[in-house]
Amino acid sequence: MNNLTKITLLSTLIVGVAYASDIYLTHNTKLPKLKMPDNNLTFQMIEGYPDYKIVATHFRTDKNELRYILANPIGYNALKDKLKVMPEGSKIVKIGWSVKKMELFPKALEADKIQRVEYMVKDSKNFDANGDNWGYARFIKKDGKFEAWNKGTKGCIACHSVAKENDFLFTKLQNSFE
Ligand code: HEC
Q1: Share of the chain above pLDDT 70, in %
Q2: To test the ligand 1 pocket, which listed residue (62, 118, 139, 157) has its Cβ within 8 A of the most ligand atoms?
Q3: Beta carbon of 116 within 6 Å of any ligand 1 atom
Q4: Does residue 149 have its Cβ closer than 6 Å to ligand 1?
């Protein structure tokens, strides 16, 4: 192999790697770059969340909002094993949609517009203030754009304390298939 061939091969490799990592980067930055003002949790922390497994579905009657609860693999397995305390790295996501009547069958409702994406992440290093070790984040969609919740997370912690016995989670794995 002469020097020119070596250089050509090397530059092809470099361009190839740069191209691949660029794809990786773009793939990894699909979610808006948003950050919670009070605890710095980012939207991108749950990149890939649509691929998480569904844990439960809820309907909030006062807000007329359909909600899916999803968990990353660590969280999902812990819920399946009914662990009392969720392990580090568990991520539980809630997506909320408005609903509309199905055009072809108006007695049925279907998801319409996404209204919110919220999550809880188990992270004892950064979130140990009240002993629950959960970090809370909420991103609301307004006028077609997501924005980070700017009213703090004290309210989240206070209300989720009702579910203290269940590691601050209202959700249980829905086993209605069995
Ligand atoms: C007034 C009570 C209340 C407040 C405040 C509240 N939540 Fe919740 N949250 C609930 C209830 C009830 C559920 C289960 C029903 C549902 O899915 O809406 C829930 C479910 C969740 C879930 C799914 C896991 C679980 O516990 O079931 C996440 C994630 C979540 N909330 C995040 C947040 C975040 C982030 C905030 C603050 C920005 C927040 N919540 C504030 C009552 C509350």
Answers
A1: 81
A2: 118
A3: no
A4: yes
